[in-house]
Amino acid sequence: MAAAAGDVDRLSDLPDNILHHILSFLDTLSIVETSILARRWRCLWKDVPILNIWRKYRNSSTFSFKEHISKLLSLRSHHVAVAEVNFDYCRWGATLSEKFEMFDSVMKYAASQSLGNGGGSHLHRLSIVSPSTIDFTDMAASIVANHHHDSLKTLKLTRMNLVLAPTSGFMSLTALELFDCCLGPNTFANFPGLKYLKLQGCISRNLKVSGVELVHLEIREAHGSSIWSMEVSAPKLRSFCFRGTDPRRKWSPVLNLPALDHASVHVLWFNSTNGFGYTKEEADRACLKLFSGLHNAESLILCFDNYNKVHNLSCQEISNGQVTSVMLI
């Protein structure tokens, strides 16, 4: 990357904050390696405010990986607070206890950097990826214990068990993204400030979402995921997106969304002849119950695979006279 004779190294001429943003897309160990590119890059990695704890060397032992991470953390600048941590359990081999020990040490390091910058936490975004569904309780306790809940705004979890509601301490969280997680009926009880919620491929027997500040809700089921029942009550929700459901059980949502502006619903299973136990009347009732929860929307996109009845419903039946724009696909 260093400029050859006669060439202009325009990349190195960029301001530090732009170079830090570019480096933030790499794993932390790779960021350190950029120090050999040129004198300009020698200490640049020390001030990147993002930690991406991914495994870089697949054949390295757990000990050497932990040793590398510990060493680079000790060499980082003590004047730069950690604003984001992306911790991937899948990228390196170790027991769950060893991985949690690493996670806890990273959380403590981020807390120490915050304390060295005027006190209080500076961690705004946290992402955790697990190789299998493990309980989030211990990690939640570590996050709260290290005072990151004061400033943490965005939390992204992959393959976590949140059947038991996490401990209180996430009052400032405004965005939550859950992928392939197991959820309980009270999962969202301690996230009162949420404005953005995304659920993809999650499993729940009785999903209840109730948020006074919630503005956007997106629920996407993937192959093998299942939400058996769904109740959503959000007085400020403006955007609602739902895709799919498991056809092996009778599903009927309860929606209370008085401020809804836009809704997009793609249901894959409404077909009274699909052999999954639905009668034509039951499918019709389920459709109309769903519509009754969306009647406040100003625009509505509906896609029902293999279900012809919905195309025979009038806009009056669907919207009860409230929706101004309806698209049936």
TrEMBL record:
<dbReference type="InterPro" id="IPR001810">
    <property type="entry name" value="F-box_dom"/>
</dbReference>
<dbReference type="InterPro" id="IPR053197">
    <property type="entry name" value="F-box_SCFL_complex_component"/>
</dbReference>
<dbReference type="Pfam" id="PF00646">
    <property type="entry name" value="F-box"/>
</dbReference>
<protein>
    <recommendedName>
        <fullName>F-box domain-containing protein</fullName>
    </recommendedName>
</protein>
<dbReference type="InterPro" id="IPR036047">
    <property type="entry name" value="F-box-like_dom_sf"/>
</dbReference>
<feature type="domain" description="F-box">
    <location>
        <begin position="8"/>
        <end position="57"/>
    </location>
</feature>
<dbReference type="InterPro" id="IPR053781">
    <property type="entry name" value="F-box_AtFBL13-like"/>
</dbReference>
<dbReference type="InterPro" id="IPR032675">
    <property type="entry name" value="LRR_dom_sf"/>
</dbReference>
